[in-house]
Structure formats: C-alpha cells, structure tokens
Design a protein that fits this description.
Elements (H helix, E strand, L loop, with lengths): L1 H17 L7 H12 L3 E7 L2 E6 H17 L6 E5 L4 H11 L4 E4 L6 H10 L2 E6 L4 H10 L5 E4 L9 E3 H13 L15 E6 L9 E5 H14 L5 E4 L6 H14 L2 E4 L6 H8 L3 E4 L1 H17 L3 H16 L5 H4 L1 H5 L7 E4 L6 H10 L3 E6 L6 E5 L11 E2 L3 E6 L7 E7 L10 H7 E2 L2 E10 L5 E6 L4 E2 L5 E2 L1 H11 L5 E11 L2 E11 L10 H16 L10 E5 L13 H10 L3 E2 L1
C-alpha cells in the first residue's frame, strides 16, 4: 500500500507540473522542479562504496548559488565549458551557466587535451568547469587562450592560480542570495536565447558547434513527456555532454522527478543496475549487445542455453497469441537486473535486429528512434522496436520530416523541421546556410517511409559508395547483411575502396570486420581469417551482384569509437589502407 501511495503522490505532482503549461526555458524547468518536488530525492551518485543522495531542493539551490556567484565574478554573458565525468556537480554547472549566466559548452571528455583546447577556443569559452581528471587539460588551455582566467573544479580542489572549487562557488552564492541578491534567480531569459553550444562528434568531419536554444531543449522535453509514460527512476550511463543523454534523460528526469542514478564506470553497468534497480535508461547499440550477449553467456556457463532457446521459442509463440509469460519464464534473468526489466531507449546508431528482438523476447521494453544533435535530438520515435526493429518510428511532437527527391525505391534525403531544430552552427554561416532550405534542415541521411508515414533510415549521404558503373550503395545496408548473416561478427564497417584490375583502378566495396579471438579459443588467427573470408563470401552472394563485397580486412581488436560508442568510420578506412587485407 505504501508503494502505491508514493506512486500516486508522484503522479499527482507530475500532473501538477505538466498542467503549468508549455515549457519555454531551462530556467522554467528548474523553477517548476524546485516548487513541485522540494525535498524529494532527485539524483543518486556513487563515491566508491558510498551512495550520495541529492534532493530536488539541493539541486536547484546549488544551481542558483553557482549562477549567482559566477555573475558576481563578472562572467555574465560568457561562454563556459563543462568538462568531466557525469556527476551531480556536472549537472549543477551546466544548468547554472545556461539559466542566467551565459552559454554552456559541454565537451566530450574522450577527446585529447589539444582537441579539447581547440574546441574551447572555437566556442569562445572564457571559463571552464572540470573534474580532477582534466586539471591538466585546463592548465594547458589557460596557456593556449589568455581569455580564460577562471577554472572551477567539479571534484576536489586545486591550489593552482585561477582554480576555484564548485563548493566555494556554492558557499559564496548562498551568502549573496541570503543577503538579498536575486539578480540571477530573476534573470530574464527568452525562449530563443542560446542555452548551449554542443559540438557534433566529428566521426566523419570537423566538429561543428550546434547552437541549441532554451526552447529547443524544452520542446524535446515536452515531446518526451507527451509520448512516453514516465518511469519513477532512470539510469545515467551515457556521457552527459551528449544531447541524447542530456536532453532525453537528465532534463526530462529532473522535470518529472524520475530519480537519476548516475553510473560511475562502464565496468560497473550490470552491478549498478542490480544495485539501483532503475526503471529505464538511455542506451546505444553496443550496450544492448553487451546485455544480450551477457545473458546468453551466463546461460552457456550454466549449461542452460538449449533450455533457454526452447523457452524463448515457446514464449514468443504465446506472445503471438496475446499471452505474455515473460515475467514468469525469465524470472531468473529479471532478477539479475534488479528484479525488473528496465526500459531500454536506444539511439545513436542502428541496432542489430537480433539484439532488439532478443531482448524484447526476454521481457525488456525497447524503444528506438532517429535524431541528431541539431534536433535536440529527437526526430522520430519507435515505441514498438521489439516487434518492429527496422523502423525508426513516427515523427516526434513538434517535429516534422520529409523525404526529398526519392528514387524508384522511395529512398531520398531526410529533411527535418520543428521547434526542437537548432539555431545554426556557431560562427559558421557557410555551413549553416548550406544545411538549410528555408525552414528545412538537410540531415545528410537517407531514408524512406511507408503508407503510415513511418520512417526507415537507410544510411548517410556522406558514406554513400558510388561505383564505376554509377550504382549507389549504402554501406549501412551491406553492414546489416553481414551483421545479421554472421553471428560472431562484433563490428563491421563497409566502404568504398580501390582495386587494380589489369593495371587499372576500379572502385569496389570493402569491409573491415572485428572478430574477437577468445570466441574461438581452439583456432589460430589464420584459421579465423579463413572462416571470416568464407562466411563473408557466402553472405555476399545473397546481395545484388553490384553490392557484393570484394575485399575484407579482419581486425582482432575493436574499432576506434567516440565517447558515445559510435565507430569512427574514417579510422577503419585508414587502417584498411595501411594494412594487409584478406582478399576474396
């Protein structure tokens, strides 16, 4: 009864917040969360074995205090970088800057010191928040850019000149507010003001600074609330600098008081799920793969794999007749995830169909969608990915898409517009102008729709392979054939290559394939390569003749990735060009 009472109370509070009307700014988001949720738990993080809990009141008071202190230091209107691991203080810093100081610039912590310094200069940052891990980065940047006079530490303290801890900012800000300074709290923010500059991942080109307004973020949050039933708790495992995690999880969870449990390490994902028992979390394909493979590996280890296969088959048959026995059939699996199957919201890249449908078969609710940093990020959402994994779903509230210049198969470029569409690339009018046609943003992605106007993403325009015969091939289609046809392939990247035939260069389709040697303990690397070659040849025969793979590079190490676990395609191509290949 107590649990039901708590759930009812949360629903009533959420309804109260939602009935306050359309969300316009992040400042409004924080103010509403403060007034509605007060001393309710908001964020939980780990410090070694200790769990540190933060209420909505503590979050909002900290934001107001930091913002007030920053403005007193003369940083009003400035661009301020946020660099570090996901944490309560990271969230405080981001909102404190965006909600009345200036523009937040969240940065990808996986980049090199020099890359980070260049991005901070590119974004005209005049101060930096950073965790202890990046003190060295901050020192380097202060030497490279003399505009930066202040570094604020998110964890620990530093005696370097110009370094000041966020705890000191909070203390000073609370003193100022206590003495009647409400200039930050009551700052006037327009919905079209820029809240953040977020750099694209740069997997295929230079990083571009995407300018996102308060209303861009707010529209995405409102869209999620209107589309998805909000869970009571969420798990933050992806980098917070990524708009997908920041907008779809952090912002939405604060606004709806879904307790955010912050993961402290990728190595601890499963133990932390068991500890926190989250109802939902944002994921990427590699995390789905890890969960799916982990379930089967555990079954193999216990000698239960064959029995599990039979149980999945029976369960799926019953599901097709409207009988859902998954919670009973797969109770032991559910127990390993905190006695619940968390909802998995997958984005960032196409997921392997086997993983999506397989996890759904166990009882996980899997959502997937399509989006970009430029759209804050959601364009479409598929709430039934477990039964329709190929689809990217339907248009998000306040977002629209259309297919431009479709070919005979209905495939054309995806153009988007809507309230969550960005304001342009920072200090790059040329790129901004080239990306828009009126109100429509040209995504560079290709897709098609069906009669229900459901989106199916085919591939990236910049990845398109154009053969000598004029035929166009999307590498994503080739990759899907390989991934679905060869179960042991962990990663595959298809691309255009050049092969000499009778002394002349000819364009061909090549692939890089990552295979894990430990999957084949009784085979030599040469034997594994021969097996891959044979299987790729077999799968390739199932495709149209002009789409067939003609060259293979086998890697026994996983491919380089961005912080959001997307393969950096160009680095795989560079490796292919610089190493020996296994030719078909």
């Amino acid at each position: 009864m107590k649990k039901k009472k708590v759930e009812k109370e949360l629903l009533e509070l959420r309804h109260k917040v939602h009935m306050m009307g359309e969300l316009d700014t992040l400042q409004t988001l924080i103010a509403r969360a403060y007034s509605a949720y007060g001393d309710r738990l908001a964020i939980v993080e780990k410090n070694k074995a200790e769990l540190i809990k933060h209420t909505s009141r503590e979050l909002c008071v900290s934001i107001y205090a930091v913002g007030t202190a920053l403005n007193e230091m003369g940083l009003h209107g400035k661009h301020i970088a946020i660099l570090g691991e996901g944490s309560f203080n990271w969230i405080v810093a981001f909102f404190a800057v965006a909600c009345g100081v200036g523009i937040s610039v969240p940065l990808d912590k996986e980049l090199s010191d020099m890359e980070l310094s260049k991005l901070m200069t590119k974004a005209d940052c005049e101060a930096v928040f950073c965790s202890k891990t990046y003190f060295k980065t901050a020192r380097l940047h202060m030497q490279n850019d003399d505009r930066v006079k202040n570094v604020f530490t998110l964890s620990g303290s530093c005696d370097d000149e110009g370094f000041m801890s966020i705890d000191e900012l909070i203390k000073r800000g609370r003193e100022l507010i206590g003495n009647g300074d409400r200039s930050y709290i009551e700052a006037k923010i327009a919905k079209d003001d820029i809240a953040a500059i977020v750099f694209t991942s740069g997997t295929t080109g230079a990083n571009k600074g995407v300018m996102l307004s308060h209303y861009n973020f707010s529209s995405n949050v409102d869209g999620i609330i209107d589309t998805i039933t909000q869970e009571a708790t969420s798990f933050s495992v992806l980098p917070m600098n990524h708009v997908y995690e920041l907008s779809c999880n952090i912002m939405t969870s604060i606004y709806m008081n879904a307790v955010i449990y912050i993961n402290d390490s990728l190595r601890n994902i499963l133990p932390n799920i068991q500890l926190f028992k989250p109802d939902a979390f944002n994921s990427v394909p590699l995390i789905l793969e890890g969960i799916y493979n982990g379930i089967w590996a555990a079954a193999e280890q216990r000698g239960k794999a064959e029995a599990l296969k039979k149980l999945v088959k029976l369960s799926n048959k019953l599901l097709s007749h409207g009988i859902d026995m998954r919670n009973i059939f797969f109770a032991s699996i559910r127990k390993n995830f905190g006695n619940t199957f968390p909802t998995l919201v997958c984005g960032g890249a196409p997921s392997r169909l086997e993983h999506v449908t397989g996890l759904y078969s166990f009882g996980f609710n899997v959502y997937q969608g399509y989006g970009l940093t430029e759209s804050s990020p959601t364009v479409t959402l598929n709430l039934h990915a477990g039964t329709s994994p190929e689809s990217a779903g339907f248009a998000f509230p306040k977002a629209k898409f259309k297919i431009v210049d479709p070919d005979e198969n209905g495939v054309g470029e995806i153009w988007i517009t809507g309230d969550n569409l960005f304001k342009g690339y920072y200090k790059d009018e040329e790129a901004t102008k080239a990306s828009f046609e009126g109100e429509w943003f040209k995504t560079g992605d290709y897709g098609r729709t069906n009669e229900k106007h459901e989106l199916f993403v085919v591939g990236r325009k910049k990845n398109l392979i154009i053969l000598d015969n004029g035929k166009n091939v999307f590498p994503e289609e080739v990759e899907s054939f390989v991934m679905e046809g060869i179960h042991y392939v962990h990663e595959v990247i298809a691309f255009e290559a050049v092969k000499k035939v009778n002394g002349k260069d000819h364009k061909i389709i090549a692939v890089g394939i990552y295979v894990e040697p430990k999957d084949f303990p009784d085979m030599s690397r040469k034997e594994i390569e021969d097996m891959v070659l044979k299987d790729v040849t077999e799968v390739s025969r199932q495709m149209s003749s002009y789409k067939r793979i003609q060259d293979v590079m086998v890697s026994f190490e996983e491919f380089p990735k961005t912080s959001t676990r997307k393969v950096v395609r160009q680095k795989v191509i560079d490796a292919y060009n610089n190493k020996n290949k296994v030719e078909i």
